[in-house]
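User: I'm curious what two different proteins look like when written out as structure tokens. Can you demonstrate?

Assistant: Sure. I'll show them one after the other, since each token string lines up with its own sequence. Here's the first protein:
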Amino acid sequence: MTTTDTTDYRLALKLLVKKGKVPTLPAVAQKLLELCRNDNASFSDFASVIESDQGMATRLLHVANSAFYGLRQKATTVERAVSALGLKYVRSVALGYNLLSSLRQFESAGFNQNLFWNQCLIRAIVGRQLGERFCPEVKEEAFLTGLLQDSGVMLLLQAIGEPYAKLWSDKNISHYTLYNKERQLFNINHIEAAGFLARIWNLPTVLVGPISMHHTKRTLAPAKTSEMKLYQIAYFSGMLSFNDPKEICAEDLELSTYCRKVFNLDTTGTEELFKDVQSEYNRTVTLFEDILDKPLDIADILIQTNKILSEMAEETTRTILEFSDLDNDDNPDMNYMP
């Protein structure tokens, strides 16, 4: 299939909305978004909304009372759980859970939804852990961005169907290669669809930008503003491949360099990052148990991801040295040693 004989899938997305196929936000999510826009919202404001979702309220209490947080007195109310876990953390988890619950309603024949949602959660936690290290003031926004940056996949599954599901099931291509193939095959990609969804849901502007542009590489240096740092975090978390791709792009080869220059993380640093991601995943996955049919043992996935980054760094270094050798061969004066 080429771009000349594809359906207009942008129009197909609009028709999905008209037909009511794109789920509207549940009342809890709408109220949470309203509170997110209110700088004066308190613990009790958020607690009262979360209490209306009994499942989420129960899970938050469970997490707050886990050994990890070591509370002297057990949290017996949602407000105390919010206080123990932190307002911004609870806000991002509760909102993310409700948004993913809405997307979970989509039908997806021939598509491994459980693996997909688990990978969305991993990207979200990579975002939060990078935010913790790189820009703490946006770490919860980084979590939500990572959680939702592939949300457009669910829309394109509805608009395109089996050919799209087949593309996303291809484990031999990197995440960025897949993004390129979406454009080639369907003249649209999941980022456009995610931006489309973010605007329909009227998500906060601070999220819409990074979600809509998470495969756009910004400056190859630490950003100066928190807004730009969020874009950089979204790019890295969105570029990660959690399989062992045989087909990669130049952008994949540059990712380890990007990580080192932007976040000052070498192979050892990313290994430590992924260890913290694994630990947080194990704490957080309980909160999303209604969405995830089965949690993953992500240790091997993250080891593999770090191995891929390391190998890409070595490949990039080899390529640079090969070009350097060619230049020296072409210029005899460069090889002359007095």
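Here's a second, unrelated protein for contrast:
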Amino acid sequence: MTDVPFFPQRDFQCGPAALATVLVQSGVEIAPAALEPQVYLPGRQGSFQVELLAATRRQGRIAYVVKPELRALIAELTQRPAVVLQNLGLEALPRWHFAVVIGYDAATDEVILRSGTERRQVMGAHEFLRTWALGRQWAMLTLVPGELPATDDPDGYVRAVADFETLQGPAAAIPAYAAAVQRWPDHRLARLGLANALRTDGRIAAAVAQFDVLAARDPHDAVALNNLADGLLQLGCRDDALETIERASRAHPEPGRIRAAIEATRQEIEASPAQGGATCALTEERP
């Protein structure tokens, strides 16, 4: 990836420089100096992964941690660079370092990095694997909401989107959840995340369509049924809402948090004014 930017790293500033490299590559205009207060810990003379993840989300990007496998890392390099954590020292005497992997040469079995003061550092795969393994094979991508990792990792991706949503809000996460649902249509948490984000964003009809899919696939999914009933009520479909909350109640008779939510929804439906023929024909609305 010859067009990946390069920010020479001063002593102990590898974290801000590496993060700025991948953020700029993803379309964020930012310099390492602007990231230093967010990721650099003067007392520790360095950065930790958690700071890089949080700073990525603050810049409107999804921080996705790559599966700790060389095969997965190489697969991601077909689309974008990755920040990696290396230990350039020994396990007993570590020298931690963040670099950006920009390529892999299969013919020579070499990894190409933006690292330190070297714009193009070429490292044998064996040596790279040694330093990366000592860093517990940690690698991170900065994804624009709606972009997906190259590897098939729905659980890891949805977790990353949920963390992003916590900081940026449901509206910002909708494109990411929608992309996940399109790629992994049977993944419950991806669809549930999309439905809840749509509902919170006020897009009730679109949310109801997603909850309806979940309830159809699993008639015992009390969470989806409860949220579907709530959405139907908001659309003015009182009769449908009442029938749906009864299904939720039968699906989850045990006491607890979910049961309490079901009873609260039931009370809200029963307190709403009855309307003649208050049923709805659901039509799917694209998020």
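A detail about the second structure: DSSP finds twelve helices and six strands in the chain.
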